[in-house]
Amino acid sequence: MDWAGFEAEAMPHAPRLFRLAMWLERNRHEAEDLVQETFVQALQSFHRFTPGTNCRAWLITILHHVRSNRVRARQRRPVIEDVDDRIADTVPFVPAIPDHLTDEAILEALGSIPEAHQHVVLLCDVEGFSYREIADALAIPMGTVMSRLHRGRAMLRQRLAEAGGREGFTRHRAFQEGTP
Amino acid sequence: MECRDVRSLADAYLSGELLVETTQALVQHLERCPACRADLGSRRRLRGALRAAFESAPDLRPRPEFLRELESRLRHQASAGQRAGWRSWLVAAACVALAVGVGSGGLMWVAERSLAELAHLAAGDHQNCALKFSLPERPVSLTEAARFDAAFGRLDTVALDGRAPGGEPIEYVERHACVYLGQRFAHVVVRYKGTPVSLLVAEQDARDRWLWPATRDARPVAGDDRFSTVSFRSADRRVFVVSTLPSRDVLVVANALRAPLAAALGGV
Questions:
Q1: How big is chain B by its Cα radius of gyration, in Å?
Q2: In terms of Cα–Cα distance, which of A106, A55, A145 is closest to B15?
Q3: Most distant CA pair in chain A: distance in Å?
Q4: Whether B180 contacts B170, CB under 8 Å
Q5: What is the ipTM of this complex?
Q6: What gap in Å lies between CA B48 and CA A99, rounded to an integer?
Q7: Are B49 and A175 an interchain contact pair (Cβ–Cβ within 8 Å)?
């Protein structure tokens, strides 16, 4: 096994993978177990990784595969149901989001949208993956990625607009103009 | 391009997913439309805020001890795998030397070590595929795997259920081709006495013909302490039968399904 290559290429992504695992599992012990199993399998398969390609996307693909297998084995039903058929285009016009938002409000709003939509929004807007990389990681069609992104972002903006109208803010995150 | 079009394409534009021509049209619209510029700015700020909130949330941070333990475990696994790899090379080299000057007794001893290593891989495949459904590489159909080993394709249609001598049913569950630690197997899962049993046919290796003795009887082999493993040869393929059942029950399954397996593999 090429430990030196794995250590240089894959290990630096461990903290970031843990963040994603912790968000998905909402339990530190389960998240650590998931990340550990992901890296064990990644090390075993590292000879199949193509140097120069997106290692973080490769690791997250393994993580989602490990997680979906675990849940399938426990529940004997699909992990992520096809929610697109159930959530029709009923998301209303979304007003502009408030300029001042707390980190907690942002993450609470993200956590309140369906899990299937959370996944694609996280992988696109936080991890910066392409639509193709997201489709491969979650083993879903690209059309489904685009549909869930569109609806997920619309729902997120809706939740944030509602939160901005409902609560005052005691502290805010200042926005930087030109922040990507 | 109208404002309605820009709003529907704005997120794809920020993700860099638009065609060049569409991007140009969108940018031209933004140059003359302050409302769409404001909307795009709002979306861009939300992305940045979401990323920043996610990356700084204290509850999502890993424990430093966990990261150290993870690296330590992986480093140990890598060095153990390195030693196993070297052992395989030493076995292959030893086989060449033994084949030249030593009798069949010596070759049998070297062959048993290789058989044990392959049996260990078969046990690992049973655990990670049949029991945990957690292999990094997705299984494929046996027909699809025929491009690697033609015999795999022939296994896709043979009936693989039966009865034990005592009358207990051996129920077919499913079949596919999968890979564990670089070793490809044709994998058939059956159920006997309510317990999953894996029949694993190793992808044919050119070393097999002269490395392993031509014993065709099913016999227990040392694979993994958690499972009972039985092995036999059929048409130059090494077959492993693995389960948590006692060895005598695994032998029953092996002997009950040898004939249909052999018919598909082209052996006796």
A1: 28
A2: A145
A3: 56
A4: no
A5: 0.79
A6: 12
A7: yes
> What is the DSSP code string of B18-75?
S-HHHHHHHHHHHHH-HHHHHHHHHHHHHHHHHHHHHHH-GGGPPPHHHHHHHHHHHH
Q: Hunting for tokens 């595969």 — which residue is that?
A: A65
Mutate to test the interface with B, among A55, A120, A158, A175 (most CBs of B within 10 A): A175
Are the beta carbons of A14 and B15 separated by less than 8 Å? no
pTM of the model: 0.55
**Using CB atoms within 10 A of its CB, is residue A2 exposed (0-12), middle (13-18) or buried (19+)?**
middle
| Residue with the two structure tokens 């609470």 | A108
Nearest-CA residue of chain A relative to B181? A44
Check: CB of residue B61 under 8 Å from CB of residue B80. Answer: no
According to DSSP H, which parts of A10-47 are helical?
A: 14-25, 28-44
**What gap in Å lies between CA B15 and CA B35, rounded to an integer?**
20
B162-204 pLDDT per residue, tens: 888 888 899 988 889 988 877 889 999 999 998 899 999 988 6
- Encode pLDDT of A30-80 as tens digits: 999 999 999 998 998 888 888 888 899 999 999 988 888 777 666 554 444
Which residues lie below 8 Å from residue A34, measured CB to CB, with a gap of 6+? A21, A24, A25, A63, A66, A67, A70
Residue type present at position B182: G
Six-digit token string for B139: 């299984």
Cβ neighbours of residue A157 under 8 Å, at least 6 residues apart? Answer: A94, A97, B46
Q: Is B74 within 8 Å of chain A by CB? A: yes
Residue of B nearest to A41 (CA): B136
Which run of H or E residues covers position B249?
helix B247-265
d(CA A158, CA A151): 10
CA distance B253 to B197: 8
Q: Are B242 and B198 in contact (CB under 8 A)?
A: yes
Q: How far, in Å, CA of B158 to CA of B201, rounded?
A: 14
How far apart are the C-alpha atoms of B44 and A97, rounded to whole Å?
A: 11
Pick among B4, B9, B51 to test the A interface (most A CBs inside 10 A): B51
Q: How far is residue B165 CA from its own chain's centroid?
A: 33
